[in-house]
Amino acid sequence: MGAQCSEHTAEEVSDLIGGIVDYKLSQCGAGSVEEWLGDEIADGAGKTSDWYALALSQYGYSDLSAYERSLTDYLASNNVASATSREKYALGLAAAGSENSYISDILDDSIGEQGMMSWIYGLHVLNNGYTCSRFTADSVVDSILSMQYGDGGWALFGDFGDIDVTAMTVQALAPHNNRSDVSEAVDRALDFLSAKQKPNGGYESFGTPNPESTSQVLVALSALGIDCRYDERFIKDGHDIIDGIAEYRLDDGSFCHTKGGGSNPTATVQAFYSLIAFQRMTEGKSPLLVLDNRRVHEAPQRDTEGAHQQQEHSTTQTAAAAVAKSTTSKTGTSTTAKTGTTLAKTTETGTETITVSVTILTSGTKVTSTALNAQSNNAHKGKNHKPMIIVIIIGAAGVLSLVIFILGKRNWKNYLFIVLVAGAAIAVVLLLDIQSAEDYYSGKKKHKKNIAGTVTMEIRCDTIAGKAEHIPADGVILPPTAFDFESGETVFDILTEAAQTYGIQVENRGSAGSSHGMVYIAGINYIYEYDFGDLSGWVYHVNGITPSRGCGEYELSDGDKIEWLYTCEIGHDLNEVYEK
Amino acid sequence: MRSFSEYNPIVIAVWFLSVTGIAMFCNYPLLMVISLVGAVAFFVMRNGLSHGKTHIFFWVLFLILALANPLVSHNGKTVLFVMNHNPVTLEATLYGLNSAAMIIGVLYWLRSFTQIMTSEKLLYITGALSPKLSLVLSMALRFVPLFGRQSAKINAAQTAMGLYKDDNIIDDIKGKSRVFSVMVTWALENGIITADSMEARGFGTGRRTQMRRFRFAAADIAFLIATLGLFGITCAAIGAKSLSFEFYPSIAAKAPDILGVLGLISYGLIILMPMILELVVSLKWKYLRSAV
User: Fold this and answer.
1) Do A526 and B75 touch (CB under 8 A)?
2) For testing the chain B interface, which of A400, A403, A411, A441 should be mutated: the one with the most B CBs within 10 Å?
3) Are residues B235 and B165 in the same domain?
4) Which CATH number applies to A442-567?
5) Which of A413, A437, A508 sits opposite B81 (nearest CB)?
6) pTM of the entire structure?
7) Which of the residues A19, A159, B151, B166 has the least number of beta carbons within 10 Å of its own beta carbon?
């Protein structure tokens, strides 16, 4: 079927890109792209030109120093309130090859702070090899996966997937496609996107056909290494995705938002970077938002690692080879009809693209493994503490008994008293379970042996969202996140696990040791009971029903959906349905 | 020239109320430090280095109060370590230290208060409001030393009965708790007997009158006005949130503005006033004595 479609050659695509460049140059009166970069793009840093800067950096223009300076100045003098914007600027800095610590610094406070988009852009930054303390790329991927809708898509709100958001999510997930759960989720998303494609090859958003949604899909497919020209899933009536974008092209090279409309800046810039993403895919380069300039800066650090690096490199190669094999088999279905040269080219493309992502992943694993080492050292020390303290207590008791003996107060009841006090002290030491903060909030997922199923948990405080500095503006403390559980684990166990993994402060009262039937959650994320009136506090729902048991008694079953919610009116503001 | 304890009881009471009131209703750490240091200095100034047991008791209590808070409250962003799945935080520890400073400061003030405000002076103040209340108050105050004397008697009687013949800690604890239970019974019984005997002597049959032997001198009025003025400035600083301090979820100290600094200075001055007075009086006394 794909055979009869007008095949877009590389020249055609570069003509489209060149048309946009010419249009922008004539618009701002610059003579060359370098001039444009130094002038209009630098002036618009932080405001209008960030996507152009990013796209040009991936188009082969590596000198973005003027833009970098301008953006650094902009960030120094403006407090960016939006988490997503902060992440976008971080990407802009990374694209410019900046070594500004802003890129890593903002991650902890930005990822997940502003809903779906802040997860996606945060993951893009992490995909470039930057790290932060609260999240790892894997933990963010987990969160994003847990937000997928039943139809295979993602959206900012509502019950159905949205084209743009789904495509953008796939772009961020693409470097992790070698994870089996990711690749399964991405396949579902691709089916969703394939089903929504219109006969002209393009897409609609909220009922309006437009090139922007189509551009996002093109970026997503290119990030996965899928050549949209040959994949039957994305060819409708002989029209592929590039057709769906190209038909909005105006005579001056720019793009319009609706057919027949005037030139639209958003449509133009999105078409620009999507075509660049496509071109990069055909040239075997990394996805659009895995930035070339950033890797240039990372290279010298690697060299210093010496022997380690060699080993790492070889594992990377094998992993890449394995993944490449699977990619080829996937894309192979659509390429079998093509000539041998095309097939070879696609394979090469696949290998190259995946290599990049695997390299990044490997560096990620290395970071976690060093963290783990530190942790196991700590745990080792922690284990040594208790016997030592007990020995000290027994020693002190012995010394005291000796003192009493020497002083002549040799009544047997005196010795009994000392034994009783020492026994109580030892009991306290044994019952106390003290861990260091780094050890406890290691951010590492708990390893479980006998997994009985998966539950999702979210923590929200919509009723008081944004009422104080430490309360998130959108009310989301933990977005719906999947957790594996062993049989017999309770809601309290999962909450504790989430607190440890994602560094959320939780205060429990009651017996929270080995047997925690009677446990009460007094505060989460510094928000406490009674903070907002006498009837306020934390409650939990499982599958929308309010259990009439403590969270330490509620044993989980597969597929349960746990919600922790903050109420200001003892539950009447939460649509409660009580357990029968 | 009189020493502070010889001023009119109303002036003394107002001064103590403003000092302890501010210490109790504000949690600004610097204010707490001023209050605690002032209270200890004032107590030591009046008593010298005696009352060692009181000091030891107060400072042990201070440690217990400061350490108890982080074990009970787990709010705060800086986690020191995690105990039984609950974080123990720096913020909670500092909050504990702050509130311990407040409580111990106020306890020191009240100790000085009971020394200066003899029951006679208390009766003078409350008598103006209600003679009945002052009678109840004086009876209640009488109970404190009475309780101590009675428990010494019971202890002596039990020793005479041979209940402490073994000298060991367990028997001591048992004996003390036995004396305490006896004391509770005795106190209840004594209350009823007192009430009966008062009624038998005709209590409540006529209007009660009161004798006044304290006067208001110019120095009293000046001291009162100075106290109230400085108290007003500090209250204004607290009311205007110039002296606000957030411990949770992370420590947020506002650099005090001019009003805040003024509030701190005037609180320090309130505390210093009687100390200056005592100092001047004692210097004068020494001077006069050396002149003889």
Assistant:
1) yes
2) A411
3) no
4) 2.170.130.30
5) A437
6) 0.55
7) A159
